[in-house]
Design a protein that fits this description.
The chain has about 130 residues and is α+β, with helices and mostly antiparallel strands. Helices cover about 30% and strands about 40% of the residues. It has four helices and seven strands. A five-stranded antiparallel sheet has the order 6-3-4-5-7. A hairpin with a 2-residue loop joins β3 and β4. α1 packs across α2.
Length: about 130
């Protein structure tokens, strides 16, 4: 399948377009479906002229919540780094205290992280794209 190209400045719009093409609604995403959506977005949508384009997961406490995010890191030569994050918010619990980062190239990379395991089957309190 040919890739769609987007300007890094418009990465958020490209992600929303990718979600719409997949019949997905941001407000209905689970961490699992969000992860698959970000992997699909990374495969099918490419930032123009990027010399860095990679995914990672980030998790940890944040302002009375616990967050799990799938983040796309992009950088064009001689430009600042840009991050596009699909963030899931959860209630804090005693088991959701650690934070971390992990590179992601497959679904298994993300699902094997402590952050993902901490939110499996938890009720999602909020979703956002940063």
């Amino acid at each position: 399948m040919p890739a769609h190209w987007f300007r890094i400045t418009y990465a958020r719009n490209a992600l929303l377009r990718s979600l719409a093409e997949g019949g997905l609604d941001l407000d209905a995403l689970t961490p699992s479906s969000g992860l698959r959506a970000m992997l699909d977005f990374s495969d099918r949508f490419r930032p123009q002229h990027a010399e860095v384009d990679e995914l990672f997961c980030r998790w940890g406490p944040a302002e009375h919540r616990y967050e799990f995010a799938i983040v796309r890191r992009m950088r064009r030569h001689d430009h600042p780094e840009a991050l596009l994050s699909l963030v899931f918010e959860f209630a804090p619990t005693p088991s959701r205290v650690g934070n971390g980062l992990a590179a992601v190239t497959t679904e298994r990379d993300a699902t094997s992280t402590d952050g993902y395991r901490a939110v499996t089957r938890a009720a999602v309190l909020g979703r956002r794209i940063d």
